[in-house]
């Protein structure tokens, strides 16, 4: 599958908090928790997501802020 999303971060699911409507998925990328995504529980179930799975976090946003 090809995607236009340039920011593709490969990592591993370290935690999932499943609710009736949405599921919070925490992804470790390079030894750090960099992404916590909220997805529908239906999507989590249909993808068969579980802790320990290798996944890609795709980030497409109209703005990204950098602070120093």
Topology:
Layout (H helix, E strand, L loop, with lengths): L6 E12 L3 E8 L2 E9 H7 L6 E6 L9
Antiparallel strand pairs: 1-2, 1-4, 2-3
Describe this structure in words.
With 68 residues, the protein is mainly beta. It has a domain of 47 residues. Helices cover 10% and strands 51% of the residues. It has 1 helix and 4 strands; from the N terminus they run E-E-E-H-E. A 4-stranded antiparallel sheet has the order 3-2-1-4. The longest helix is centred in the middle third of the chain and has 7 residues. The radius of gyration is 13 Å and the shape is globular.
Which parts are unreliable, with pLDDT below 50 for 5 consecutive residues or more? Answer: none
Task: Give, in spatial order, the strands making up the sheet with the most strands.
Answer: 3-2-1-4
Strand count, sense and barrel status of the largest sheet are:
4 strands, antiparallel
The portion of residues forming beta strands comes to over 45%
The outline comes out as globular
State the helical fraction: 10-25%
> First CA to last CA: what distance?
36 Å
Give me the strand/helix succession: EEEHE
Number of helices: 1
Specify the structural class.
Answer: mainly beta
| Radius of gyration, taken over Cα atoms and rounded to an integer in Å | 13 Å
* β-strand number: 4
């Amino acid at each position: 599958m090809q995607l236009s999303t340039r920011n593709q971060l490969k990592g591993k699911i370290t935690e999932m908090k499943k609710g009736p409507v949405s599921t919070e998925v925490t992804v470790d990328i390079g030894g750090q928790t960099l992404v916590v995504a909220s997805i529908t529980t239906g999507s989590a179930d249909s993808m068969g997501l579980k802790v320990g799975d290798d996944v890609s976090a795709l980030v497409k946003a109209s703005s990204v802020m950098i602070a120093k």
